[in-house]
Write a structure and sequence with these properties.
The protein is α/β, with parallel strands linked by helices. 35% of the residues lie in helices and 21% in strands. The chain contains twelve helices and 14 strands.
Length: 329
């Protein structure tokens, strides 16, 4: 078994390389993905090895990138589009919602759109305006799209390959502040035997309260669980992994055991994923709950300037405070 320690970013790069090797119909396209290797170097070295017909530097036009990819997908290719930063995706929002999400239904199932839209998202890197958004709810709300997000290098490596192999259009959210975090990656893991793409997973078992998180907040939740353990409190952390379709089976089972639930995400709380998750957990686990489902989220404001972003982002203390409040009922 070839297990290596890789950063999350390098795991994505390796997964993309495997996808290019395994299927000649896979093409990568986006701003600066070729010669530069992407602003975060996720596609570093791929154009050199696979040529500029398969790793394509596009104009600075997100709508054009997605529109071109729709045509390629209809013609049998599997385009992987990189949106350079989360806040740059909005010019392509019309294409994604009106074309990518609808084409399969509009054609009565005759046309598939097997494309992946990679979006680095979230804050924590000290970036300027439009570079730290969390737009996942826009896409998870849209019927016809699937939305997934990785939280560690192993998932990054496997999930990007699974997404590319899927016949459905998938928005692949990448937690940019975790790009440099390292972890073990099994490079020989066969996709057919890998953990399913659209399934949640318990990241840390516990018995006292359940913390549900995804993407960049999984690490925060795990850190909170480590801190809570010092006080003798066991938190169970569930990495949701898939945002549409939501897989809450592991969450329900966990909450029925612990009786308490806290949902954590970076995006603003108003109409965020946490609202839907809290509603579903309450419906399914009402008689098991010892307290209301609480949410720890970003605030309902435009993403703030980098010098104060740490005041905006959910952190270990805010998660632990919410857990404490669930024990106060």
């Amino acid at each position: 078994m070839a297990t290596e320690t890789l950063t999350l970013g390098k795991a994505l790069n390796t997964g993309l390389r495997r996808a290019l090797e395994n299927d000649p119909k896979v093409v990568i396209m986006g701003e600066d993905v070729g010669k530069l290797g992407g602003v975060f170097r996720i596609t570093d070295g791929l154009q050199k090895d696979f040529g500029d017909q398969r790793v394509i530097d596009t104009p600075l036009a997100e709508s054009g990138i997605i529109g071109t990819a729709v045509g390629l997908a209809i013609r049998g290719f599997r385009p992987v589009c990189e949106i350079q930063f989360d806040g740059f995706v909005y010019p392509a929002y019309d294409q994604i919602v009106s074309q990518v999400a609808k084409m399969h239904y509009r054609s009565q199932g005759k046309v598939r759109i097997p494309m992946v839209i990679r979006i680095p998202y979230g804050g924590g890197i000290g970036a300027v305006e439009h570079h730290s958004e969390s737009p996942e709810a826009y896409f998870a709300h849209t019927a016809g799209l699937k939305v997934v997000t990785c939280a560690n290098p192993q998932d990054a490596y496997v999930m990007i390959q699974q997404a590319i192999a899927s016949d459905d259009p998938i928005v692949f959210m990448e937690p940019k502040r975790r790009y440099w975090e390292k972890g073990p990656v099994d490079l020989d893991a066969p996709l057919a035997e890998a953990y399913p793409l659209h399934s949640a997973r318990i990241a840390r078992p516990g018995a006292d309260a359940t913390v549900l998180a995804y993407g960049p907040m999984v690490r925060t939740a795990l850190d909170a669980a480590t801190a809570a353990a010092e006080d003798g409190r066991e938190l169970e952390v569930v990495d949701l992994r898939t945002l549409s379709p939501l897989d809450l089976t592991a969450a329900y089972e966990s909450v029925r055991r612990t009786g308490r639930c806290v949902v954590v995400h970076e995006a603003p709380g108003n109409l965020g994923l946490g609202s839907e998750i809290a509603a579903r957990v309450t419906e399914e686990c009402f008689y098991s709950l010892e307290s209301p489902v609480l949410r720890v989220t970003g605030f309902d404001i435009p993403y703030p300037a980098a010098r104060v972003e740490e005041e905006y982002l959910p952190d270990l203390d805010r998660v632990l405070d919410a857990v404490d409040r669930t024990f106060g009922w």
